[in-house]
Design a protein that fits this description.
This is RNA polymerase sigma factor, sigma-70 family. By secondary structure, the protein is an all-alpha fold. The chain has helices spanning about 10-20, 20-30, 35-55, 65-85, 100-105, 110-130, 130-140, 145-155, 160-175.
Amino acid sequence: MTMRKICKLNEEQRQFADTHHSIVTRFLSHHQLDEAEFYDIVIFGYLLAVQEYLEKPELSRYAFSTIAWRNMKDCVAREYYNRSRDKRTAAIASLNEEVLELEAFLPDRLAHLAEALDNQILLTELLSCMTPKEKEMVHLKADGYTYREIAEKCSITVYGVSSRFSRMRCRLRKMELI
């Protein structure tokens, strides 16, 4: 997800943004987002939508609210993604507290390491029994492509993509049982 740059609004864009500003409050209300917390997040998507809508004539075939809602939704999704990143949820300890053992600071770390190693072994086994086309599909899905986009890139149908992923999940379940 790349963030597009917002430039200073010109007079026409400013007036357009003022006229349609109620879209922002409707969006926040519809998604039950606290205005105090999320207004500053979604407003950037809204302002970017204003600029894009007025600068790109091909967007006029859509309602402005559609473009604005999509951009605001992207901003909210990006915010939730950033909040859930490991660096934001890292374990924190006060410098005043004494931590005598690593186990006290990071409980169950050995269990987590063992689970991660098991997952790595399982993934290696799964990759070894995949066709090159399946590997390509898994890489595309990991990169965030939708089934439709994967189907286009791999020259197969969306149903073909879905059924291949279904078969791969079945293989993974069988491998877990062994």
